[in-house]
Specification:
The chain has 107 residues and is an all-alpha fold. It has a single domain, classed as Helix Hairpins. Helix content is 79%, strand content 0%. The protein contains four helices and no strands. Helix 2 packs antiparallel against helix 3 and helix 3 runs antiparallel to helix 4. The protein is elongated and about 50 Å long. The termini are far apart.
C-alpha cells in the first residue's frame, strides 16, 4: 500500500519541491552572514539534490541513484565535521561566527 502512495505522486512534484528547497538554500548562502546558518543552507541544498536523485531513481526503477545518495550523505557528514571544527577555531579567535570577521585572519 505504501508504494501505491509513492507511485501516485507525480515526478514533477518532486522536481518542484527539490527546486524550491535548493533555491531556499542558495538564498540563505548568498544573504546570511552567520557561518552556522550558511552550513545549514548548504546541507539544505545537498538534501534537495538527494531528494531529486531518489525521485528519479524510483521513477526509472534503478537503485543507482539511491546508492549515490548514500555516498553524498557520507561526504556531507564529513564536510560538516570539518567545517564545524574550523568554525570553532575561528570562533575562539574572533568571538563571532559572522563571516565578515574572517577578514581579520588576513595578515
Amino acid at each position: 500500500m505504501n508504494q501505491d502512495i509513492i507511485a501516485g505522486v507525480p515526478l514533477t512534484w518532486y522536481v518542484w519541491l527539490s527546486a524550491i528547497l535548493f533555491a531556499i538554500g542558495v538564498t540563505g548562502v548568498l544573504y546570511r552572514r552567520n557561518a552556522i546558518v550558511i552550513f545549514m543552507c548548504v546541507e539544505l541544498m545537498l538534501n534537495a539534490v538527494n531528494l531529486l536523485l531518489v525521485a528519479f531513481s524510483r521513477f526509472h526503477n534503478d537503485p543507482g541513484g539511491q546508492v549515490f545518495v548514500f555516498f553524498i550523505m557520507a561526504v556531507a557528514a564529513a564536510e560538516v565535521a570539518v567545517g564545524l571544527a574550523i568554525l570553532m577555531m575561528v570562533f575562539r579567535n574572533t568571538k563571532s561566527t559572522d563571516i565578515g570577521f574572517l577578514n581579520r585572519l588576513k595578515f
